[in-house]
Amino acid sequence: MDNIYISYDFTVSPKEPGAEILIAELGFAGFESFVENEKGFTAYIQKGDWNEEILANVSLLDSDDFEVHYKVEEVAQTNWNAEWEKNFDPIEVANLVSIRAPFHENPNLEYDIVIEPKMSFGTGHHETTHMMIQHLIELDVTDKKTLDMGSGTGILAIFAEMKGAKPIDAIDIDSWCYENSIENVDRNNCKHISLYEGDAALLEGKNYELIIANINRNILLNDIKTYAACLAPKGHLLLSGFYQEDIPMIDEEVQKYGMQLEKTINRNNWVALRYVKD
Ligand SMILES: C[S@@+](CC[C@H](N)C(=O)[O-])C[C@H]1O[C@@H](n2cnc3c(N)ncnc32)[C@H](O)[C@@H]1O
Which domains does the chain possess? Predict the structure, then answer.
């Protein structure tokens, strides 16, 4: 991949919650990095991943509730780490889990996840990551053989290990994510996570008691049958990366493989579903 990026400098009014919702949508459209400022933020995408239609499905741009302006520029690769360090705030989930950068102070909660996301998705800022952490908090995952599909920074695999899951496979299709997750797994002293670059094709013949997949609706619809084939009876499947209105479609697919919906979590119209296999 070359080092040329396309940047979109967005102003969003009102900024709260507009910028947060827009960042979430852009993350799913393929943007890789976001640097906030007073009036909005700048979003970056590699030129090779960009296309003319990149904003076509970003619904906030059509919303009457927010005023959004942007200007587009081509930029050479910047020092992402320095940019990111200036802008990443620590996050807490349920007063139990902190997700922070190495330079943040440790708030001394029960679980402390240290992540340096660079270009990959998964700081806990996103609603879907947050909800998957919530599901994992509630599940007893001790000694559960686990798969984290679409692992991004590795954040969910890392938290699963902290909660006692093992062994864990974490798979991401993106080479940046794969490289970055190696660093994060190491940084959090995880010993039971095996990382792979790839997709559902790697799952043939595998067996898990817990499968976590925070990807997007279409990839999930395509891959649910493969996940189902790898999931043991009484095993749990956690799915996120889609909206409330996508639930019927996802649910219809999952139901084909003998799984029951146990719990739905919803944040700002994003959802995370927990299924259990018969
Ligand atoms: C929404 S992010 C989730 C990251 C992290 N698990 C989290 O919860 O914050 C989705 C991830 O799935 C990866 N991905 C996309 N398509 C995939 C596929 N077919 N198989 C595996 N990973 C995929 C992307 O590269 C991205 O890192």
Answer: 4-84 (3.30.70), 127-277 (3.40.50.150)
